[in-house]
């Protein structure tokens, strides 16, 4: 039994360390672009916007409605198209509250006379003891609390995202990722969500506040991040210890 427990602990430790083995003594590796949802969307484009064939004259015209023309609309509208997501978050929130509560109570119970029994009982009690005040209880409690929350967030980023799917109602599902490696630390930026084609500007850009179900992640991995994170054993103890 002891051998089995040791084996399980060793396996858990080995799995937890696999993520750090990638940048052991070397910079973190980039994620392969071929394994992303953006690459799959570009390799499997959706249906064409126009089904009628264009002649050579129409394709060469500057006034053609095609996206390749000089005045054509080049905004992202179909699977595999690319657009720019502008993230400018500048939020500040402050919450403060205080509570105060107090309570006091007193209870007393005595048996001065009960068929003469108290007098007989008092004779057998130690000197100074009496049943006149058989039970006396005093209680008091008080509690107070004071809490405050102050948050200030500011993030300014621009990232190119790809239309990975066009939903039946015309809404575009987008996904974008960006990796920047500086020395032995990798910075990652991930953006996903749903946008309406009409919310995309003429510059083929969209702000984060127009993205539904927006998921923005800005973090990283590397040697510095590993040092800042608590070890697996400490995280397990923090989750199971009641105090």
Summarize the structure.
The protein is α+β, with helices and mostly antiparallel strands.
Features:
40% strand, six-stranded mixed sheet, 243 residues, alpha+beta
Could you explain how this protein is built, in words?
A hairpin with a 2-residue loop joins β3 and β4. The chain is an alpha+beta fold. Helix content is 23%, strand content 40%. It has a six-stranded mixed β-sheet with strand order 5-1-2-3-4-6. It has a domain of 56 residues.
**In DSSP terms, counting alpha (H) and pi (I) runs of 4 or more, how many helices?**
6
In the predicted model, the low-confidence regions spanning at least 5 consecutive residues are: none
**Mean pLDDT score:** 76
Q: β content, as a range?
A: 35-45%
Assign an overall shape.
elongated
Strand order of the largest sheet: 5-1-2-3-4-6
Q: What's the count of strands?
A: 6
Q: Report Rg.
A: 35 Å
The SSE order reads HHHEHEEEEEHH
How would a crystallographer describe the biggest sheet?
A: 6 strands, mixed
Q: Provide the structure class.
A: alpha+beta
Q: Helix proportion of residues, in percent?
A: 10-25%
Our measurement of the CA-to-CA distance between the termini, rounded to an integer number of angstroms, reads 29 Å
């Amino acid at each position: 039994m002891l051998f089995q427990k040791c084996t399980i602990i060793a396996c858990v430790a080995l799995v937890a360390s696999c993520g750090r083995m990638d940048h052991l003594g070397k910079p973190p590796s980039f994620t392969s672009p071929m394994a992303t949802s953006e690459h799959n969307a570009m390799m499997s484009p959706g249906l064409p916007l126009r089904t009628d064939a264009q002649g050579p004259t129409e394709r060469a015209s500057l006034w053609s409605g095609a996206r390749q023309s000089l005045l054509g609309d080049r905004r992202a509208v179909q699977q595999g198209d690319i657009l720019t997501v502008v993230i400018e978050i500048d939020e500040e929130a402050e919450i403060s509250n205080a509570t105060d509560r107090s309570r006091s109570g007193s209870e007393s119970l005595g048996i001065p006379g009960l068929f003469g029994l108290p007098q007989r009982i008092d004779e057998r009690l130690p000197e100074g003891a009496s049943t006149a005040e058989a039970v006396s209880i005093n209680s008091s409690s008080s509690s107070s609390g004071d809490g405050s929350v102050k948050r200030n967030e500011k993030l300014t980023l621009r990232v190119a995202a790809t239309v990975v799917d066009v939903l039946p109602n015309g809404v575009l599902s987008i996904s974008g990722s960006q990796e920047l490696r500086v020395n032995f630390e990798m910075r990652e930026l991930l953006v996903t969500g749903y946008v309406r084609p009409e919310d995309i500007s003429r510059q083929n850009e969209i702000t984060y506040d127009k993205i539904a179900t927006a998921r923005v992640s800005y973090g990283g991995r590397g040697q510095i991040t590993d040092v800042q994170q608590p070890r697996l054993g400490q995280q397990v103890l923090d989750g199971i210890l009641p105090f």
